[in-house]
Amino acid sequence: MEDAKDYDDFEEYNLLYRPWCVSENYYGKYKWNQSIKLYENLEKQKWTSSNLEKLRQNYILGGKEMKNFLGKMKSRKKTLDENILNSDTPGFDEDRMTPYIDLIEIMSLYENLDEGDWVK
């Protein structure tokens, strides 16, 4: 156990971003309309389902892997929307939480919808 690192040295991130609120009168960070904007950004840049799966896997692997993957995707002109999350850490908000894991799960359920069928 002497070789074990002190866990306080690791930055902690939360891969859950819940519960989403669909109410028109809700103005907090879990607003459903925010997820729609993130989705539209991914669609506009034509992220493939395989790239989204790799994004999800790299979130799970950790920060270093995530930064490497995002760097590779940036070279292909595919980025995560930093304006919506307002954070210096790509893919995370100011509380070190990411909506992308939940969003990728949701997108996998609705990947065959035509334009305009996404709930607004």
List keywords for this structure.
120 residues; mainly alpha
Task: Give the structure's gist in a few sentences.
The protein is mainly α and 120 residues long. 44% of the residues lie in helices and 0% in strands. It starts with 31 loop residues before the first helix and ends in an 11-residue tail after the last helix.
Describe the structure.
With 120 residues, the chain is mainly alpha-helical. It starts with 31 loop residues before the first helix and ends in an 11-residue tail after the last helix. The protein is globular, with a radius of gyration of 16 Å. The chain contains five helices and no strands. The protein has helices spanning 32-44, 49-61, 63-75, 82-85, 100-109. Helix 2 packs antiparallel against helix 3 (63-75) and helix 2 (49-61) runs antiparallel to helix 5. The protein has a domain at 41-111.
- Structure annotation, total helices: 5
Describe the main β-sheet briefly. none
Q: What is the residue-averaged pLDDT?
A: 81
Estimated radius of gyration: 16 Å
H/E series = HHHHH
The overall strand count is 0
Low-confidence stretches: none
Quick one: overall form?
Answer: globular
Helix content: 40-55%
Record the SSE blueprint.
Layout: H1 32-44, H2 49-61, H3 63-75, H4 82-85, H5 100-109
Helix pairs in contact: 2-3, 2-5
